[in-house]
Amino acid sequence: MLRPYGYICQNEMLPILLPIKTMLLKKLPKIHLSDRVVLVPPIWADFPEVYQILSNLKVMQYVTTGARTKSEAKAELISWIEHREKHRFGPYLARCKREGNLIGFAKLYLSDRAQSVQVGYCVQEHLWGLGLGTEIAQGCLELGFEYLQEGELVAFARIENKASRHILEKIGMGCETDNFQQENRVYARYSIDAAKYFYIQGLRQAS
């Protein structure tokens, strides 16, 4: 299901020289816009597109248990919607700002894997190598720090998933360990705190 997005996003410069506690942070938006991507909440009508990604063997190779069956994909989409209903944030669908087609997912979520809010993302296989994963992941940090006002965000990547680990490092996250084990899978755990995020943002704005 394609959706047109003709929105203008106000991206106000944050006063990074002030203590973070004194900053006026923004209200969590229903949608989030970047250069090429719009993040929107998932709805049940999105299932056919969502299933195409969740059932893709290459895209899901390093995502928990791998590619989903149709029933598993339905349960996962329901869990995304329920997460957003229970909390005031959750997974987003990442769509092309110009065309409206589904690019991938952006996730801000809670689980028993960590006490902090976690970041996750994926991109359609035919769109790999275009920098969209970095753009989506950066959007997750902006939502987590500038809107949710989290003190820390964490992410997990399978140790052999070099592309995903490169994205996490590119957006400023640091590797705490590459031996985080869960359900017979080994992950690298990454994190970034608010102070580092706003410092990096300040450097980008000043350049």
What can you see in these coordinates?
With 207 residues, the chain is α+β, with helices and mostly antiparallel strands. The protein has helices at residues 47-54, 70-86, 132-147, 162-170, 194-206; strands at residues 32-33, 37-40, 92-96, 102-111, 114-123, 152-158, 174-182, 185-193. The chain has an 8-stranded mixed beta sheet, with helices on both faces. α1 (47-54) packs across α2 (70-86). The radius of gyration is 17 Å and the shape is globular. The model is unreliable at 1-25 (pLDDT under 50).
What oligomerization state is this entry in?
single chain
**Largest sheet, strands/sense/barrel:** 8 strands, mixed
Low-confidence stretches at least 5 residues in length (pLDDT < 50)? 1-25
What is the terminal-to-terminal distance?
39 Å
What is the averaged pLDDT score? 89
Structural class: alpha+beta
Helix content: 25-40%
In spatial order, strands of the major sheet run 1-2-3-4-5-6-8-7
Computed CA radius of gyration, to the nearest angstrom? 17 Å
- Outline: globular
Which percent range describes the beta-strand content?
25-35%
